[in-house]
Design a protein that fits this description.
The chain has 19 helices and 20 strands. It is α/β, with parallel strands linked by helices. It is elongated.
Amino acid sequence: MTYLAVPIAAKEYDEATRQINAAIAKQAELIELRTDYILSLNVELVQKLINYARNASEKPLPLIITCRSKSQGGAIDYPDKTRIEILVAAIKAGVDFVDFEYESFRDMNNQEKIRLVLSQYSKTKLILSAHNFKERFDDLAGLYRHIMATYPAAIPKIVYTANHINDCFDALDLLWRTSGQRIVFAMGQAGFITRILAKKFGSFVTFASVDNTNATAPGQITVEQFRDLYRYDSIDKDTQLFGVIGDPVAHSMSPAVFNACFDKAGSNCLYLPILLQGKTDKFNDFMKSVIPRRWLGFKGFSVTIPHKENAINFVTHRQGYVEPLAEIIGSANTLVLGPDDNVSTYNTDYVGVLESIAAAGFKDLQGKKAAVIGAGGVARAVVAGLVSAAAKVKLYNRTVRKAERLAAEFKCDFAPLSDLDTVDAELLVNCTSIGMSPDIDKTPIPGEYLKKTMTVFDTVYNPPQTKLLRDAKTAKAKTISGVDMFISQAAEQYKLFTGKDADKKLMKKVVSEHLQC
């Protein structure tokens, strides 16, 4: 069993009791009393808190008592003498677990005191912890062996900071190769997935904060996020994994959208945000680490900036399947991992474009005049989709040379952005980020250039109603929101991942709730 533990990091007794009550209300499975946060710490106060925690719920939750050293992340620099007094008192009170630092336990004077009281009070188990707040440990497996050799009855807890997603594999490998009670994960945004996957690979404990203001380590999320967003209660060793690869990814709505669909379908699947920083080499290293570790359970990835070109190049180099239009576009937003280390890649952005346009009334684009603003990655997918549907496309971009190159590639017209005052199009598509939150009062084209004979499509989806779309409505033009494109391309990804149709109504509901539209 993996316990979802909530640390109580309070300075005063009353504050601690409020946090304990909140943790119980939010269905914490274990409570950790971080006594190193308490001002004027003393044995009597800790005993009082232990008694409160035991009686605060109908069924008492297991308790960890921790008084962390400053060097290992403690809040207040209490001396070893005080810290050991607290732990000894907790052991005598019969708590389930006490957490003591491995580096402090190696001091024979400290070790003898802890061993003696543990030998007299056998109910309590010792967690021997090691933290590295700067980087990963040089020899994680060796550290694990040393802790177990020092005190075989201990529960080893090894936690380090992941400075890159690729640093996470040490922690996941250790969990995979070991068994029994142990706690292993990585801190920081890059290490986030190890906190969630701790349950899949049997880490004894993973930690969640009681709320957004009381996290005790970098990357710690709330109990609600664990349960509601990341389907904590459904995770087991057979859970299949998916995720969005990008930098940044914290803002992505994809985890909420896909996990809601998995939940409704009753699928044993989980979708994670994967912060993958760096360029091609870092992307390739990540994929080369994931693919041979089939036991991880990754089955597919959504890919966003800046890795769409990396995705298609990686699969091309491996001689995997590349969707023809994705090859023409030159970028991919979807990776599917198959058996025998096979990887396929697709671009569902153009599907999102064409479906959104069709839903607005353009059943046949052949010969229709389309103006596309921008010449970046999104524009490539839009232009490819429109050209494949035989529309007459004209590109408008601030950097004319860039528009000229893209236009030559897809055999369409181009013009500088300044020519938008004479734009003549039945369909106008904004493929820039102009108007995206927080710059919601900006637009790529003045409202007076818009006509009621146009259909105006903005690929920006946050906010759902950009200034461009508001101006288009004022001009009595038809509009297409970027939300529609997002949902269409996500639904196509869902089908590639699962072989089943997505619930688009549910997807739209989740997006609407997140964007409050």
